[in-house]
Structure formats: C-alpha cells, structure tokens
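Render this sequence as a predicted structure.
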Amino acid sequence: MGAARGMNSFERNARECGYGSIAGIDEAGRGPLAGPVVAAAVILPLDYGHPEITDSKRLTPRQRERLSEVIQREAVSIGIGVSEAPVIDAVNILQATLAAMREAVLGLFPPPDYLLIDGLHRIPLAVPQEAIVRGDARSVSIAAASIVAKVSRDRIMEMYHRQFPQYNFLRNKGYGTLEHRKAIAKYGRCKIHRHSFQIAEIDALPLSEELGF
C-alpha cells in the first residue's frame, strides 16, 4: 500500500491546489518503424491506488491486459488518441505524439481541469498541466494511461498483422527488431511504415528482439 500511496503524490498535490478532475496522459509507440503512436488519458477516482499499476514497460503482456481491464472498469473516464504513420511522417513524431495526447484529453468526460503528462512537453490545450519526467513510474494516473495506451496500440498492431502478415507485427508490434528489418529488406515498406524513419539509422542502434515491448 505504501508504494501505491507514493504513486499518488502528484495527484494529491494537484488536489491541494484546488483541482478536482485530474488526468494522467501517456503514449505508446514513439520508437517503432511502423504503425501509429497511441496516447491515452485516464481520470481515476479520488485517492485511487492499485499496488500493481506501474510503468507499462515493467509489466508482461498478460499483466498489462489484466490491468487494462481493471482500469477500464474503475476509471472515471478514459480517452484514446491515435496518430497514424502518414501524420508522423508529415509533422514529425513529437508533434504527432502531442496531437494524439490532445485527442485523448478531448475524449474525456467529464473534462479534466488538470493534466499530468509523461515526459518533457506540454500538450497544446488551455488546461493547467504538468510534464513529469518518468511520470509513468511516479504517478498512478500516468501509469494507468501508459498501460491503456500500450494495450490499445498492441491491439491495433495485431489487426495490422492480419493485413500484412509478412512483417510479423503480431510479434514485433512494428519495432525495429532484426526479423522486422529483414522483412523490410525483402518486401519493402507497406502503407503503415513510417517513411521518415531511416532504417540505416535504426540499424546502428543496439536493438534486440524484445526492445520496446
């Protein structure tokens, strides 16, 4: 319970400043070579805590699926935003991520009066907000959003796998694994690949089959 309570400190501070409807926002899919970036915004009940809700990268796929169902049941509101590959190519990954986050926040009802955002950047909305580095490991609201965003994106990539099975998106979720890069070399890129992401640059990174998911 102590760890769960510690994950509530940003939410408590916001409430002490007079805010009542606080949303956590995070994204999944900034790094892959293919597929969308997906953002989630989550408003949790007052003083909500759950001992297992943490940064989605610390959880197994099965844990994420189970906790996403818990969050769906217990959250006050959830919003999802998606920026597909053509948008990422047109405006760059940061702006596409912020656009997805904005869409997620606008999908919340009731609307939030304060935002807790994972990372360094504020969302282009006239709502008081706070960007928190490593927020997905420090705020229960952001952690919940990270889980929902990751599960939502994985489900989108599973649908794309049925359209483009040659890339095995079911396994790699669009990340630059060796298998995925070999498939691109053999088949070229499909419509959900990010053409602004250079394969040569990715090849220089120490990627593994498990990176990013």
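Summary. The longest strand covers residues 22-28. The two ends are 27 Å apart (CA to CA).
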